[in-house]
Design brief:
Elements lengths: L7 E3 L5 E2 L15 E3 L12 H6 L17 E2 L4 H7 L3 E2 L3 E6 L5 H14 L4 E5 L4 H10 L8 E4 L3 H9 L6 E5 L16 H18 L2 E6 L12 H5 L2 E7 L5 E9 L7 E7 L2 E4 L4 H4 L10 E8 L2 E13 L7 E4 L3 H14 L7 E7 L11 H13 L7 E3 L2 E2 L5 E2 L4 H10 L4 E5 L12 E5 L2 H5 L4
Parallel strand pairs: 6-10, 6-11, 7-8, 7-9, 9-10, 15-19, 17-18, 19-22, 22-23
Antiparallel strand pairs: 1-2, 1-3, 4-5, 11-12, 12-13, 13-14, 15-16, 16-18, 20-21
Length: 455
């Protein structure tokens, strides 16, 4: 066992250094280097003796018929949708989210649902005692489910428990920051401990076939705590988002080797646990009956799911030399671009006013297809003319003022028609399959064509 000289490890990226520095030379993070026990080299090395002990790996052909991926469905539709029609056997999943958002509740419900189907499931808790988990299970009505509970943080004991007899089908680890392994001489939660613990759990998933779901803490800026290599090691990365002002919770797959990325599941938090939201578009649309200036309906896509979202805009005379630009749920830089295009290409002088933009329901939109809906909301707020409540808008705005086509236009229109919308404004370019919609389509080549409707 050869000790390496690097004793200082960056808690952000995992890079090692021989001395302490204020700034990590690898990722540039400040005050992220902390001293951990000298990392130990893997036994054997790459010498002649190690080569003699090693066994040759089996070589398979690319043309060999692959086996279908076996999945374990939890029965919770929104969760299964996010992970790709159920958890793939032998996969390692990382779930992150802010404290108190409902990660433990979600996984307890999932593990209990899988155990109720006859699968064997284990819940390893490093942060709570088993009595605390029983109290939560009682509140959720899951006390009689045959789910195994273990309060343990040592990786070696966790592996020994999981490997005795038949391997369980589903394992929950809550959380990775509490685990420690005897092979590393550092405190739990450090980069070395987190990385080594995750490697051991992934090896268990690949060799014995259980689904392993690991909870990961997040930092102040919402990133998963620990080295980025953890996200590269696992098969799927799920983020659980929400805020204290709404009961809405969004489960998003930011990475998935066994299904589509950016797929979302929508939940509603209640005292008896998380409830599925089968039609999330109704949550994001205003319940008011009257038409109010500054409100536009955006037909968006999250993963493979179409969502209709209300975008609200408000303009007010600015008492300051530099008008305010306040945005909730959208990119502030993109709002500045839309305002510049409206002023330079459409002759709409909004620059001297305070602009407030909000995506209703607590959802955050990242796709550029929302450009036209944002522009429509701004034009409506500027002119005082309310937009029809039965109309949707989508399309990307270029710096020239041209409206560019977006992906899955047909899916957006089908969702609008299903919810009773009668008209849609969309870019002039772009193919629409099966043009037999009951929705009236208004195709516009330029943003100034939309602005003329408010003249």
């Amino acid at each position: 066992m050869v000790k390496l000289a690097q004793d200082y490890v960056c808690q952000s990226c995992g890079a090692a250094s021989s001395k302490w520095q204020g700034k990590c030379p690898s990722c540039g993070a400040w005050n992220s280097l902390s001293q951990e026990g000298s990392a130990l080299a893997a036994p054997g090395g790459v010498g002649l003796k190690a080569k003699r002990r090693a066994k040759a790996a089996t070589i398979e052909s690319l043309a060999d018929a692959g086996r279908d991926v076996q999945r374990i469905a939890s029965g919770i539709g929104e969760l299964d949708r996010a992970v790709g029609d159920g958890f793939a056997r032998g996969s390692a999943v990382l779930l992150s989210g802010e404290p108190g958002i409902g990660k433990s509740t979600l996984l307890l419900q999932a593990a209990a649902a899988i155990a109720a189907q006859g699968h064997s499931a284990l819940y390893f808790s490093g942060e709570e005692a088993t009595d605390q988990i029983r109290l939560r299970a009682s509140r959720l009505g899951l006390s009689k489910v045959p789910l195994g509970l273990v309060a343990e943080t040592c990786v070696e004991r966790i592996l020994a428990t999981a490997e005795q007899g038949l391997a369980p089908d589903f394992i929950v680890i809550d959380s990775i920051q509490t685990l420690w392994t005897e092979a590393i001489e550092s405190a739990p939660g450090t980069v070395s401990q987190v990385r080594a613990s995750m490697q051991s759990l992934i090896a268990l998933a690949k060799t014995r076939g259980p689904v392993i779901v690991v909870v990961g803490h997040v930092t102040k800026d919402g990133q998963i705590a620990g080295p980025k290599v953890i996200e590269h090691m696992v098969d799927a990365v799920l983020t659980f988002d929400g805020d204290n002002a709404h009961n809405l919770r969004l489960l998003r797959a930011t990475k998935n080797r066994f299904g589509p990325a950016n797929e979302i599941g929508v939940f509603d938090m209640h005292g008896d646990g998380l409830r599925e939201v089968s039609n999330p578009s109704q949550l994001f649309l205003s319940e008011g009956d009257g038409e109010v200036p500054g409100s536009a309906i955006f037909a968006g896509i999250e993963g493979t799911r179409p969502l209709l979202v209300e975008i609200q805009a408000l303009l007010a005379p600015s008492p300051y030399a530099a008008p305010r630009r306040s945005v909730v749920g959208w990119d502030q830089n993109r709002l500045a671009m839309i305002l510049a295009v409206l002023e330079a290409r459409c002759g709409v002088k909004i620059g001297a006013q305070d602009v407030y933009l909000n995506v209703a329901g607590g959802l955050r939109i990242s796709e550029p297809a929302a450009d036209m809906a944002v522009a429509a909301a701004l034009l409506s707020a500027f002119s005082g003319i309310a937009l029809p409540k039965d109309t949707v808008y989508f399309g990307e705005v270029g710096l020239s003022g041209a409206l560019r086509p977006v992906q899955q236009m047909t899916v957006r229109l089908k969702e609008a028609q299903k919810l009773g919308f009668r008209s849609a404004f969309l870019p002039a370019a772009g193919e629409i399959l099966n043009n037999g919609f009951a929705v009236k389509l208004t195709r516009l080549p330029q943003l100034k064509d939309l602005a003329t409707l408010f003249a």
